[in-house]
């Protein structure tokens, strides 16, 4: 099927943009290599980790289109930085769509490779958020997923729904649509109403 | 054999508890996701890295019991935090038992997969300590293994003993028992007498 | 062929030295384990990541000689620290030779494993610089590749030249020689004339 492939490429592009922006935003020396490298790692990090655990080769290694998508995403961040920051809301939609799509692609691929349902939920979330985690670790910051309102948790919820509907033998396309929708919904509501998860260990 | 399997699950639980405690201890925002995620990474990080290098799939991916053990370990950390910190000595025993078991399981698995004896010693140590290293990197701290009195070194010593006795064709069960005992012994003595390794590069 | 093997071992030794020096240089507690561990990670990190992505087992796992090379490299750093820092220029040459060789070995291996030309360029650079990136992340610093004048970029350029000449069916040995030379040339010129890449996102 062609559609998911192009959606995957679009997700890669969006993540590359968000990664490059994060690097160029840090108030320190960032040259064109640092920005590109950070965009690249953000875009492919999560999927690469998932594929290394699954024991299969990441898509970007064999298919040059992913690298082209990343290049476009990084150039986009460099040339339209102020425009993107101005239309922050549009960018938020893109990022949210990105994590939703990555999660569902990730959980689906994991199930195909015979991963247990519980582990597949985690692998789906990993696909979506670990690129950002690696990016934040490289630029020496506490990973955003530990600070953001309900972010990875939205991915986990959507992944859980996908696994559940899969067990109920719902058609994969319908299932993908519902799961993606749920992730976007939870994430949007969390941001709109500033919902957070219960805190632990506060003093 | 069933016994090592349950011991492995127990080790996973203990490491999840210690990881979750480390996160909830950091004087900053930590929600229930951050604590769980950190517990998970601490518990499976070392073994996952070992298995990715060996080219085999980590146990938690196929066997849901590991994820259940981690969930219990994290809940334990959340609900019994003050109890655990009070009975610190008991927890220390658990953690020491955990690294000892993980080391021996790791070196044994590596040898089975045809790793050279010298590399197997390192892989055994990796299994035991890299989960903690990844955890500390994520919460933006210098990894504990660089600061703790003789910790990874105890694992290396025990792993070396295991490889040596294996070459001498000692029975695996007896060998495991001796190697685990040596790691616990070295670690306990190091903590009790505050032994440290020679420092380098002091000014 | 025997020559590349010994060159690879020499590269490993040099990187172990530079990693151990970086650890012992940090103005904080560094014992003999921390220094050795950091040297080890610097030396094998990049190649291990490359091999995990390619789905093959890293050389150091099967061949004990790599670990011996690392041990020698670390001991060298410990005993000849002041000597090395005095003859900094010699060490710079070694490090530059190291990244050049690692890059070409990495891109060559990636192409052999059926990686796309574009991705092989990245994999070559990864082989050379990711060990240092992991090292810097562990000792909680911004990775040097983000701060150093044209470092990873020199590797990317040399890797691109290798791929190009390979497509033009130039003999591998001649190609390796030219590509290594180009990396050394770019890096040396960049340091000598303090060339940097254009900055992005400055305020």
Keywords summarizing the entry:
homotrimer; 203 residues; mainly alpha; globular; membrane (chains A, B, C)
Overview of this protein structure:
The structure is a homotrimer of 203-residue chains. In chain A, helix 6 packs across helix 7. Helices cover 77% and strands 0% of the residues of chain A. With 203 residues, chain A is mainly α. The mean pLDDT of chain A is 87. The first copy, chain A, has one domain. The first copy, chain A, is globular. Chain A is built from nine helices and no strands. At the B-C interface, helix 2 and helix 7 of B face helix 1, helix 2, helix 3 and helix 4 of C.
How are the secondary structure elements laid out?
The structure is a homotrimer of 203-residue chains.
Chain A: H1 3-25, H2 32-54, H3 59-62, H4 64-79, H5 81-86, H6 88-112, H7 117-138, H8 152-167, H9 172-192
Helix pairs in contact in A: 1-2, 1-4, 1-6, 2-4, 2-7, 6-7, 6-8, 6-9, 7-8, 8-9
What is the percentage of strand-forming residues of chain A? under 5%
- The domain tally of chain A reads 1
Percent of residues in helices of chain A: over 70%
Count every beta strand of chain A, where a strand is a DSSP E run of 2 or more residues: 0
Q: Quote the distance from N terminus to C terminus of chain A.
A: 52 Å
The secondary-structure class of chain A comes to mainly alpha
Catalogue the unreliable spans of chain A: none
- Helix tally of chain A equals 9
- Biggest pleated-sheet summary of chain A: none
């Amino acid at each position: 099927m062609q559609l998911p492939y192009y959606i995957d490429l679009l997700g890669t592009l969006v993540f590359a943009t968000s990664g490059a922006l994060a690097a160029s935003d840090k108030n320190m020396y960032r040259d064109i290599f640092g920005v590109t490298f950070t965009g690249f790692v953000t875009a492919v990090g999560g999927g690469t980790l998932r594929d290394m655990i699954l024991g299969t080769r990441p898509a970007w290694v064999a298919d040059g289109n992913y690298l082209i998508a990343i290049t476009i995403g990084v150039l986009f961040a460099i040339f339209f930085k102020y425009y993107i920051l101005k239309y922050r809301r549009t960018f938020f939609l893109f990022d949210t769509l990105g994590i939703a799509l990555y999660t569902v692609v990730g959980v689906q691929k994991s199930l195909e490779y015979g991963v247990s349902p519980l582990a597949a939920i985690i692998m789906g979330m990993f696909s979506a958020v670990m690129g950002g985690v690696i990016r934040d670790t490289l630029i020496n910051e506490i990973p955003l997923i530990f600070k953001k309102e309900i972010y990875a948790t939205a991915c986990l919820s959507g992944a859980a729904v996908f696994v559940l509907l899969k067990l109920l033998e719902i058609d994969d396309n319908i299932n993908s649509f519902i799961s993606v929708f749920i992730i976007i919904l939870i994430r949007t509501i969390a941001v709109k109403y500033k919902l957070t998860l219960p805190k632990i260990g506060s003093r």
